[in-house]
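Example record for the data management plan.
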Amino acid sequence: MSAPAQQRPLGRRPRDADAILAPVARDLGRAAAAALYDELALSPKPGLVTLISNGSHDDMDARTFFRSIAALRGYFVRIARLGMAGADFEALERAGIEAEARMLAATGGINTHRGAIFLLGLLCASAGALIAAGRPLTPAALRAMLDERWGAALHRRAQRPSMLPGGMAARRHGLRSASEEAALGFPAVFDVGVPAMRSARTRGLSHERAQLDTFFHLMAALDDSNLAHRGGLEGLRFAQQTARGFLADGGAAHPFATARAEALGQEFEVRRLSPGGSADMLAAVCWMVRIGAVDAVDAVDGR
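Corresponding structural encoding:
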């Protein structure tokens, strides 16, 4: 996806700007919902819910995720529009809180996509702001816009102690929280996930194998608070070391990568480990693939 050729910066838009931008916001939001499906459909995916497995979860399955994704479709479009309109962080946060309530209503109180609401929502807002400013959608530009528009607010938010399970686990074990990850511009997504996806695609891996390779790169690098919550520091380090071993042996390019990932999944299920943070970041990378950002030339200022 690329910005309209005649797009003008915010504050100097034509009167019919809404008519021009609304379809673009719709496409950004639809790509986000589709990326959540990409993440769900990837299989095998150790410890996580897929179309054919509940992973390490007793309280959710693919149908739970379908209901959640359906409930969130409008949110991603809305937050892209907010980004286009130059909304402040408080407006984005309100939209996210309302989306979380819709998710929980759709799933019967089960948290399927809380992290994705935060991460993908911010990225959709950043993409909307770039489009409105007539700038190209590249990973570097998305990250720069996130910091330019909402970086200060994200740093303030990172100072607030989280009462959510993952946030408390991060604080207990001295790990970087999701809020701190956001304040830094999501380094796991942009410094690990995007390069891993680009490398996999350059090497000619299939769509699914590229996603699998990216997922293992993310799990190897990220201090995933979901893993720390479910398995303590020992569980987190086990998952990271397992992912690094998978990659060292050829990753998703290995002829038996699928069988190896399935075997690892059994170990994760025994330990009740679920790398949910890595799954959210995989969805973010899948979204960038869908909007054409991963293959775009990295340039912060494309004007």
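Summary line stored alongside the record: The first helix runs from residue 17 to 41.
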